[in-house]
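Structure first, sequence second, as always.
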C-alpha cells in the first residue's frame, strides 16, 4: 500500500507525540485539532506556522489520556515553570474546552505525594482560584 505525503506526515507526527509521552484515545481527532488550531488555547497568540503549536500534556499521567491544550511555546514553558515553582502543589491551571457545554473551563489540580487531593473547574479563572484558596484554608494539614 502506498502512503500519501499527508498520511506519512500524520503518521510521523503521531509517532513523535507518542514518543513524547502523549497519550490519546483519538489520535486522528488530536491530529485534526492541532491542524485546525489557529490560536493558543490559553492566550491570544495567533499561530503563524505549525511549528508554533505545542500539544500540552500532563507528564505525570502515564496510564490514561493526558492531553490538555494546544498552546504556543511561551504558554507551554510558563505552565512548566508554574509547576516547578508552585508552593501550594498546583500542577497546572488549564483552560479546557467542553464540547458538551460548548465553553471553556479553567481547571486547577493540587497534588501531594503523587495523589490528587483537589481538582476544581469553573467557567472563570477567578472562581477556580477562589475554590482553590478555600480548599487551602479548609485543609491546612496539606500545606504545613
Amino acid at each position: 500500500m502506498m502512503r500519501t505525503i499527508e498520511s506519512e506526515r500524520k503518521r510521523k507526527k503521531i509517532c513523535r507525540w507518542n514518543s513524547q509521552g502523549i497519550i490519546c484515545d483519538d489520535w486522528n481527532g488530536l491530529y485534526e485539532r492541532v491542524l485546525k488550531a489557529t490560536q493558543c488555547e490559553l492566550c491570544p497568540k495567533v499561530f503563524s506556522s505549525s511549528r508554533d503549536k505545542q500539544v500540552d500534556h500532563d507528564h505525570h499521567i502515564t496510564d490514561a489520556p493526558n492531553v490538555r491544550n494546544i498552546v504556543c511555546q511561551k504558554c507551554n514553558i510558563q505552565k512548566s515553570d508554574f509547576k516547578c515553582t508552585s508552593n501550594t502543589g498546583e500542577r497546572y491551571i488549564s483552560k479546557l474546552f467542553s464540547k458538551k457545554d460548548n465553553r471553556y473551563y479553567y481547571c486547577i489540580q493540587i497534588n501531594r505525594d503523587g495523589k490528587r487531593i483537589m481538582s476544581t473547574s469553573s467557567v472563570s479563572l477567578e472562581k477556580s482560584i477562589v475554590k482553590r484558596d478555600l480548599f487551602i484554608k479548609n485543609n491546612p494539614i496539606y500545606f504545613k
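Margin note: Residues 5-19 form the longest helix (15 residues).
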